[in-house]
Amino acid sequence: MRWRGVPLDVLLAASGVGLDLLTTAHAGDTEYLPAEAAIPMALLVGLPMGLVRHRPIAVTLYLAAVLAVTDQLGSFTSNTAQILLCVALGVAGYRASVRATALAVVAAIGATAINIADPGIALTGNTWMYAMLLPVFPAVLGGYLRGSAERLNERDVTPDALLAAGGVAITVLSTWTSWHSGNQPVWVIGLLAVVGGLSLGVARRLPGLVFLLQGVLLVSADAYLNQAVNTCVILTLIAIGVFAMRVVSWAWTLAAYLTGCLLTAIAVVGPATEITPFRVGVLMTLVATPIAIGRYLGMRRAAAAAERLRAEEAARAAVAQVRADQLAERERIARDVHDIVAHHVGAMVLRASAARYTAPDGPVADALDDIRETGHQVLQDLRDLLDLLRDPERQPDLLANPADVVRESAERMAAAGLVVDLDLDPAIDQTPLIARASAARIVQEGLTNVLKHAGPGTRVRVSVTSSDEGLAVEVRNGRPPTAIERLPSSGRGLAGMRERVRTLGGTLSAGPDGDGGWVLAVQLPARLSSGSVA
Question: Which of 20, 71, 96, 162 has the maximal Cβ count within 10 Å?
Fold first, then answer.
């Protein structure tokens, strides 16, 4: 695992060395260094880039020192050191702390000012601004990327904007002093420089088109503005890297590599340039470096996307497993409830059936028949609930008409001793079935509560009416005729009715009526929302 990033470090070091060899290809002897020192100087400035991901501050301070020294020696390597210094500052802003990055920026500003202050050139305000902005921009860019790296995605235009801004900064800052030296008007050259930099902003979306545009600009610069050739080479290499990252086809990648080698050769090789195998190898390695980095980043991006997909699939599988466990537990509980209740209710039904055969006709026999029928209905309801718990997506069978359920409940409670007056509006058949079924359950529970708490002989008026506002249910009982012994109650009946009514979006009120009786009033809406029905 610890060797995972070594290939990228090697590529960074190779790209640093190759960049310096490219920029100093035409350099000869200087006042202090012979031409043979080009390779040692390239190694001196480029190899530390292999450590920039792990020691960005140390590499930045080193490159600042190299920039100052090579500038005083008059070496063309100072140009490479200036470019690599900006790269190291970007990495420092991304990986290091704010205080350490600020220290590196100060050192870079000093080295950049030394590089600009050639003999006979005064450090003007514009010069100092250039010396400050050049190091500050990549450091700020790196810090911004560190804070927003998790938010970058295919729909985010932030990386595109940053590529465009970086491209414009490279083209303008490195070529503006030579705009007046070409055959074309200054505004034409400036416009091409800005367009070339801005084109990097669409490189992720249109990698092939941007690569072609950069190639055209490179050939044009080689023909009409030699001072901008190195800048165009850098932009072309960036476009090749983005192309390799976005295009997965190896055939197109190979075509881009060969085209990049041809374009770089056109820009680097001049009439007096000696072509040697070593220089050809350096050029090919230089073009291969951004392609390798682009392919590496593309593979990392694809691996991250695959990992996110696997994580999402694992999360969905975990949710499905939890759901299955919940359903299994609900089924087990339902089976236990069914077994326990069915056992006792079944025994009650059998005893009531046996007693019915020995009891004479009359109220006792009627009560035993009612107990037996009620027990059979309870067992059937338990089986239906068990099926529903096993498959929550299945809608319960509503075979009985809710109005018939209300009438049956009224008749049953009348047989138990209540005096029931039923007012059932025929228009309720036009209301939603869910509301009518809920109204029937509320009437059943309301009458049961009257029998429990007021006792036989109590007069009850039940009304179920329909209107434009919805379905209205009222169960009103009078004063109990005599003092009765309270039957045991769990106290959950009223709470269950409130929950049912609230789920449907209705209202419920229950309390004394002021005359010694009790009133239960429920209002259900005429139209039920999909969320209420669920």
Answer: 20
